[in-house]
Design a protein that fits this description.
Blueprint lengths: L18 H18 L3 E2 L5 E3 H7 L5 H4 L3 E4 L5 E4 L4 H10 L9 E10 L11 E10 L4 H18 L4 E7 L3 H16 L5 H9 L10 H6 L12 H16 L5 E2 L11 E9 L7 E7 L3 H4 L7 E7 H11 L11 E5 L2 H16 L4 E3 L6 H11 L3 E5 L1 H6 L1 E6 L5 E5 L3 H8 L1
Parallel strand pairs: 1-5, 7-8, 12-13, 12-14
Antiparallel strand pairs: 2-4, 3-4, 5-6, 6-11, 7-9, 9-10, 10-11, 14-15, 15-16
Helix pairs in contact: 1-5, 1-11, 5-9
The protein binds histidyl-adenosine monophosphate.
Length: 420
Amino acid sequence: MKREQISAPKGVSEYVPPRSASFEWVRDHLIAPAKAAGYQLMELPVFEDTNLFSRGVGESTDVVSKEMYTFEDRGGRSITLRPEGTAGVMRSVIEHSLDRGQLPVKVFYSGAFFRAERPQAGRYRQFYQVGVESIGLDDPAIDAEVITLADTAFKNIGLKKYRLEITSLGDGQSRAAHKVDLVAFLKTLNLDEATAARAQINPLRLFDDKREEIQAKMAGAPLLMDYLSPESKANFDQVRSYLDALGITYSVNPRMVRGLDYYTGTTFEFIHEDLGAQSGIGGGGRYDGLMETLGGQSLSGIGFGLGVDRILLAAEAEGVLFANQFASDLFIIPLGQPAKVEALSIAQTLRQSGLRVEIAFGDRALKGAMKAADKSGSAYAIVLGDSELASGAVELKRMKDGELSSVKIGELESALSRTS
Ligand code: HAM
């Protein structure tokens, strides 16, 4: 009986060969600058106590109010699949007392996150982020370094068509002064009940409302940037001057509102031009009250989350990925049993010196095996038959133009290293 096929759940992103190699390459390039700056890996659970997100990320956010995958586990506990990484990192830092050691605590993470959003190109229900968090010190130079880590990663990947927007949400005093005027302004707008309720929890959220009529109404709203306390303003100016010194271009967007409630001070977003509606390739900022909200001491922190799925789409759109960059160096075609033994041992030796080597298995005829070598995208191929075993030499075939050169088996490594 033919059984019905099972498909992946709606809206998940998944990466299978050959595209998975590009995904891996992009992800590793996003991580590399953080590692070079001394950030260390944090590998955390993908599910957490639901309270962690409702308290940490904020009830007024879409992420918490509409998009969480929440369920009761077998012990009756409310569990949520992580929609973001910062709250979990903070929970773990407190739980393992990392904040009692050397500060700042500098960590990176990479993995799957879950939001029950309406799926579309670049927006998935399971997606991948690379993130960093630097926790424990409030120094504008750290803000600049964190932003630079993301910018460097994008540059190393080869992206050009992206821009950086930054703003400051100020300190408590700045936000309180702004809130008085913003709330008074919102009262004049005649908002519907749901919108008014959202505004009550976090009035800044209305800057982020995608509806045109709300955007129009918000055109004259007071901007937090104009309410920054002298300390917050000095802090933001300092961040900007570090970025200027590093040659990082940015624009200040005083209307930026991030989708999570914990942000304070410097906040930023990277936007890619080729991605349509889902153009945010990464974002982050400072979060002064988060650790305390989660039961820890009062320490500041800053970090970012980069959307690996979207950055891969951006890299593809800009044409900076080359399929052959992930292919093997050598494809060995053994003919017969003794040749197979030799092929396995040659491959073993070459792989240990860092070369990528594949073998044609399955005793296919030479023609079929050559086709496989071609398809694999391998740079070189050799055929190992009885005569090659007897002479100890092979014809090294350069796949792109078919050029042949005679090489001793023992010298394959240096021949391949010379050419790669
Ligand atoms: P976020 O802006 O919510 O921030 O997410 C960061 C990035 O994840 C976005 O810029 C986007 O590229 C990607 N992303 C978000 N949702 C989706 C989705 N449904 N499908 C595909 N990609 C998506 C955070 O999550 C914060 N935890 C970042 C942070 C770290 N702030 C401070 N530290």
